Amino acid sequence: MKSNLKNINNLEYSIKEFDIDQYTKTIFDNKSDAYTNIKRIIENFKYNIHSAITIMRLPYLIAIENENYQKRLEIAINSGLTVDDKDEIEKFYIEYMLNNWEENKYNVDKELMKINNRVGIRGNYLKDNLLQGTVHLWSCFEVLIKDYIMEIVNNSPEKAIDLMLKNDYLKKRIKEPSFELLNQYKFDMHNVMGYVLLNEIDFSNYRIVFNMNKTFFDNKLIDDKIFELNQIRHLVVHRSGIIDEKYNNKNNTKYNIGERIDLKAKEIYQYIESIALFLKMIFCEEELVKYFV
């Protein structure tokens, strides 16, 4: 049975590109060797989040390309161009898109409906795609924080360990390394202490992220949207996005118990932007000099 999307604005579930580079420019402009590993961590994050966004964008990209392909051919024929005149066709096409946005928006929406009806046999593929996107987004954030905290511990072990031991929550969860693990590194902890102490810590647990943030960044850099993203990720992974009492008790939500959460592109943008702003703040010079010189 095909999904009935006639009364749904499919474009509301369509993700466009997000420029993450504007949030990381400062650190890449800094030529200090002390930041080499941090730049590697950020590059990895940029790759991961770009992949997550691209996966969420795929329905829109396919829809727009389906529409564009025919339009480009029409423009080429009507303008006396050949299909090989790609640059000229692109100029005409961009002008066409700007002058006929409402019509094109409608056509793209129709293409999205076709995609959903082909793929979303058991439900709404466009909605499910965004829900799964929250899982990918949290994973990007989780890996970024874990890698960066481990790098802080590697670079400033005494200061970092002292800070973590002052946090009762972290103190209970960070275990002393085993003899086998120490022996693996021939008892040389230089530049590996972060890995030794934190590799087994589960950063998908929001309380771990919250307490690490509280310990290393004075708890001033994380906002409610990141907590909300974590909660939705947990709901999608463990309950297929179905609201339960536990979720409603923890979150200010518009949903009733038993409903499936319905995210739109504008909400996904808010999560991405919150992560990007967090990234910008923890990698600002004021924060970096606390642990890297």
Describe the protein in words:
The structure is a single chain. α5 (125-155) crosses α11 (224-239) and α5 packs parallel to α13. Residues 1-7 have low confidence and may be disordered. The chain is an all-alpha fold and 293 residues long. Helix content is 66%, strand content 0%. It contains 14 helices and no strands. It is globular, with a radius of gyration of 24 Å.
Give a topology summary.
Blueprint: H1 25-29, H2 36-78, H3 86-99, H4 101-119, H5 125-155, H6 157-165, H7 168-173, H8 179-184, H9 193-198, H10 206-216, H11 224-239, H12 245-250, H13 265-282, H14 285-288
Helix pairs in contact: 2-3, 2-4, 2-5, 5-6, 5-11, 5-13, 11-13
The total beta strand count reads 0
How many strands, which pairing sense, and closed or not: the largest β-sheet?
none
Global structural class: mainly alpha
Helix and strand succession? Answer: HHHHHHHHHHHHHH
Q: Indicate how many domains the architecture comprises.
A: 2
Low-confidence stretches: 1-7
Overall pLDDT score:
80
Strand content: under 5%
Q: Quick one: overall form?
A: globular
The percent range for helix content is 55-70%
- Compute the number of helices: 14
Radius of gyration using CA atoms only? 24 Å
- How far the N terminus sits from the C terminus, by CA atoms, comes to 62 Å
> Which oligomerization state do the chains in this entry correspond to?
single chain
